[in-house]
Amino acid sequence: MPNAEKCPEDVSSSPYRQDSRRRARVLQLIATSFLLYATVSFYYLASFYDRTTAANAYEKAQECAIRNLHSDLSFLDPAVPIAADEFLERRDRLARALAASGVDAFVLEPGYTFQYYGNISQTDWEPWEPEERPFLMVVLPIITSSGKVSAKTAFLSPHFEEGRVRMLGIPSREEELDIVIWEEHWNPYETLLNSRLFNGRSARLMVDEEIRDFIVRGLDLAGFQTFGLNPEVELVRQQKSPAEVELLRVVNTGTVVAVRAMRPCLVPGLTEDEVTEILNSALLSINFGLFFNIVLFEEHGALPHGGFVTGWKKLTPESMVVIDVGAHYLGYSSDICRSFFIDPPKPRGPIALGFILQLLGKVPKEQEALHADPELRAEKLKVWDIVLDAQSAAAAAFRPNNTAASVDIAARKVIEDEGYGYGFTHRLGHGIGIKAHESPYLNKWNKDVILQPGMTFTNEPGIYLENRFGVRHEDIYLVKESGDAELLTGRRATGPYDP
């Protein structure tokens, strides 16, 4: 029938279906928007998490290192400044060496040697820069009729500085220092020659290795005869007193303890420069004076002193870290090196966040180690052990009457036998005292220097594989009268996670 009415169900069902479809589209749009919002939010949350973690890592590591270090400061207990009488005894020993060498006097200016004999450093005298006006210490051997030799100490000083010289507190047997003064319009070297010390005599002067050339030339032109150091005079400073040994023990043990205290605080993402500052803060917190601090990661560690041209590289769980650091305490130096890995990091965020980060393609930092090269890691561990064995061989060679060369050769042989001789690119070590680098020097050609009791040395073999990594272990040893050398750094490294 053409005019028949539509069924009521047909009329009512069409709007219902349209409304359902509309609601479905709205819900779908809401769900899509929510998912998009959640994705973007989690992405920014993850980015914020990374930025916050990086920002806090440095401060947390710094606080952690200082806290760990201060948990036990017993290594500082033996620290006692050098007594005034010891400076006088040093000058007497120097005088005996001068007399035996047929030298009339020893001449030096403010610096490390002046600090050794007079307790005045370069910065104590001129904190800004070395002064062009000569201020000299002159040590003369005085021989009594009985043959006893003692030191007479005098000083050459600008007249206007005389009062300051007397206020420096330089140890002296006399109530007043013996000072030869010179005016600005005088020749200071001729003044010294014509003084009561030499009475115009063309004396034989031994000059310190740190004295500046223009002073030596001035002495020569005035009529003195100048000579460089000889082994007898060098030996005075090379053989350490018991008080010096204790100070070397304190500052070197403390520096090692500071590195060990810091290591468990380090986390991935820190840069070499940041680790340098963290260690500096720890050392300053125990009143150690900063000297040098070289922090190297991975291939940078193949540059033994690369810390002066690096600093930006970031730490990872697989980084071989090389830290060569020295500090000063009560006038004495440390110089130690440790090579190590940091601890594998633990998850630092909620499990859900870590899951979402993986969904977004952001690998959590604690999983970065999973991507390491196992062969490279195995070689790092192998090299670490070889260098430790080389250090052990050298330690066994620190005995009286051995040559300086023999100690280097002992370590070098271990490394060469393992096929890494090409990677040991520097000498084994050097003397250490008020300076980090003092004579004698341990290299395979130094066959003339004979080890004697009281000498202190660094023992620092290393292997450096260019563009890959480096490993160096450095500790301080004291040559004893007999038996094994004494370790002055507390204890040696035992493993790459226990340096």
From TrEMBL:
Highest rank taxon of the organism: Eukaryota
Family matches, as InterPro entries: Creatin/AminoP/Spt16_N, Creatinase/aminopeptidase-like, Pept_M24, Peptidase_M24B
Coiled coil ranges: none
Entries under PANTHER family matching the protein: AMINOPEPTIDASE, XAA-PRO AMINOPEPTIDASE P-RELATED
Protein name stated in the entry: Metallopeptidase family m24
Naturally occurring in which organism (per UniProt): Colletotrichum incanum
